[in-house]
């Protein structure tokens, strides 16, 4: 679905951002060196804006783009195993028109769902520094404000959970757990283990567990 002018303007500013020298250096280094499987591809190697339905009531919030997923393809959770898990689950839940997320031109569209990340650039070792998180936070705050119909946020992992609660000025911040729920302003937050290979390969996060979180999110929207 086409973004409105305000979301499009935000996307343009996100993509052009070079505020964090360490992240700029890393994302561009990954884009130059590439993984062998993608040696012939041109990497996006820029910050990654959110993706989905601008009228979404559900937001899925992750940590940051994957080095050879979003940082390569230019779309969040696209082109890696984390994206395979997430979009397959969104398709099963009725939020996505297809289970695959391969590239920006693969025909994927979301219904009533918006997917984004707390830090818009890929960080080394998937670990943004606190100042990088805070420097990127205004993008997330503006994104939330522009998604006026959003009411439920599924937070993938403790970093996303804590980042969102920090920006919504919730204190004390409830502890993250898989299946945890809390209210924060106009949002209901639901915690979910991240769809990283570290969790999915080890069985810490299973498809039924992910499906149950999305089912709970749908129930909160009903």
List keywords for this structure.
single chain, 222 residues, alpha/beta, Uracil-DNA Glycosylase, subunit E, six-stranded mixed beta sheet, 8 helices, 39% helix
Overall description:
With 222 residues, the protein is α/β, with parallel strands linked by helices. It has a single domain, classed as 3-Layer(aba) Sandwich (Uracil-DNA Glycosylase, subunit E). Helices cover 39% and strands 12% of the residues. Strands 1-3-2-4-6-5 form a six-stranded mixed sheet, with helices on both faces. Helix 1 runs antiparallel to helix 5 and helix 4 (81-92) crosses helix 8.
Can you summarize this structure?
With 222 residues, this protein is of the alpha/beta class. 39% of the residues lie in helices and 12% in strands. Strand 5 (181-184) and strand 6 form a beta hairpin.
What count of domains describes the coordinates? 1
**How many strand units?**
6
The major pleated sheet works out as: 6 strands, mixed
Order of helices and strands: HHEEHHEHEHEEHH
Q: Give the class from helix and strand content and strand pairing.
A: alpha/beta
Unreliable stretches? none
Per the CATH scheme, the topology name is Uracil-DNA Glycosylase, subunit E
Number of helices: 8
Portion of residues within helices: 25-40%
Radius of gyration: 16 Å
Task: Give the CATH H-level superfamily.
Answer: Uracil-DNA glycosylase-like domain
Strand order of the largest sheet: 1-3-2-4-6-5
CATH architecture: 3-Layer(aba) Sandwich
Terminal CA distance reads 22 Å
Mean pLDDT: 96
Q: DSSP strand (E) fraction?
A: 5-15%
- Overall geometry: globular
In the CATH scheme, the class would be Alpha Beta
């Amino acid at each position: 679905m086409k973004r409105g002018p305000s979301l499009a303007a935000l996307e343009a500013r996100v993509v052009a951002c070079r505020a964090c020298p360490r992240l700029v250096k890393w994302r561009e280094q990954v884009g130059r060196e590439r993984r062998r499987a993608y040696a012939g591809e041109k990497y996006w190697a820029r910050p990654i804006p959110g993706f989905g339905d601008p009228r979404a009531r559900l937001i899925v919030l992750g940590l940051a783009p994957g080095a050879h997923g979003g940082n390569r393809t230019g779309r969040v959770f696209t082109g890696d195993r984390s994206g395979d898990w997430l979009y397959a689950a969104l398709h099963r839940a009725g939020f996505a028109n297809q289970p695959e997320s391969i590239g920006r031109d693969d025909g994927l569209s979301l219904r009533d769902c918006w997917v984004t990340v707390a830090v818009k650039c890929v960080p080394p070792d998937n670990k943004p520094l606190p100042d990088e998180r805070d420097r990127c936070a205004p993008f997330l705050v503006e994104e939330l404000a522009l998604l006026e119909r959003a009411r439920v946020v599924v937070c993938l992992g403790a970093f996303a959970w804590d980042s969102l609660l920090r920006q919504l000025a919730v204190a004390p911040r409830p502890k993250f757990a898989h299946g945890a729920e809390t209210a924060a302003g106009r949002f209901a937050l639901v915690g979910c283990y991240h769809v990283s290979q570290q969790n999915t390969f080890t069985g810490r996060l299973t498809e039924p567990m992910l499906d149950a979180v999305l089912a709970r999110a749908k129930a909160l929207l009903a």
